[in-house]
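Following the same procedure, backbone shapes were mapped to integers, as reproduced here:
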Amino acid sequence: VGQLQAALRAAQQQAAAETRTTSATLASEREQLAEELAQFDAYRARESAALARDRRVLERQAKALLKVPDRKERSEVDALKRELEAVRADGRAREVKWKMAASRLQKQLAAAHDEIA
């Protein structure tokens, strides 16, 4: 009975020692896991920020590409610019013509006034 109790006590002490080492190992692993989780969360936050930044840049570039006129639109714009310049030149020519006519008529009016007077 004494030997059985001693063997039982030794087994209990061995089990208690194993439990303590296992508990310490488990606590160590939990700490390590918590650190790895914190590192992963930080990494995920950095990557999410980088992805959001890249998405904003790509959206800005896409908007810029949509604003750039294509070849057909550029040719239309050039044609309209040429037409506008032609209309302006025609308007300037008409204005010069009208000024000359107005000047000529004013001279004739002044001459007529001088004849009457």
About this structure: Helices lie at 2-67, 71-116. The mean pLDDT is 94. The chain has two helices and no strands.
